[in-house]
């Protein structure tokens, strides 16, 4: 009888210990599953970080390339600006386009001036004509000069500001062409040359000094 009781006590103790071990095992399995999930999350985060790092590296490389391009462009613009001879005279600032070829047509020259918030030069007096004539330089040949803002519209010579020309400093008054440039190798009051729009030349832009 005593032996049976001992066996029962041992069996109960073993059963309780077994239940406890099963619970511990279940807890360990749950923790293992949780750790596995956390590990997977960390792996995903690590992969995301790697991808973000790669993107940042690529963006950094792009920024360096863009910075280099901007620096080169800035240097080009500085050189470009140096060659655009800018001179203040009376109430206007004049831009003398002295770059090397390819030069520009009359239309292209006006587009360039307008892109700089100015327009082609309007010569309204002998004094202004003298200033411009003394500033331009001879280049290429006798008939290459600087486009001015004068064109023929309905057989009337009109400046780009809408005013009709009253000076008429023509070198070739009989020419039927419709666009005007000023040439250096000519007398002061006979230095405007009629020619075609497609003839490529240097040019002069003008902007009021108070606006500039």
TrEMBL record:
Residues 18-87 form a coiled coil. This is C-type lectin domain-containing protein. Residues 89-206 form the C-type lectin domain. Pfam families: Lectin_C. Keywords: Coiled coil, Signal. It comes from the Eukaryota. PANTHER family: MANNOSE, PHOSPHOLIPASE, LECTIN RECEPTOR RELATED. InterPro entries: C-type_lectin-like (IPR001304), C-type_lectin-like/link_sf (IPR016186), C-type_lectin/snaclec_domain (IPR050111), CTDL_fold (IPR016187). Transmembrane segments: none annotated. It comes from Oryzias latipes (Japanese rice fish). Residues 1-15 form the signal peptide.
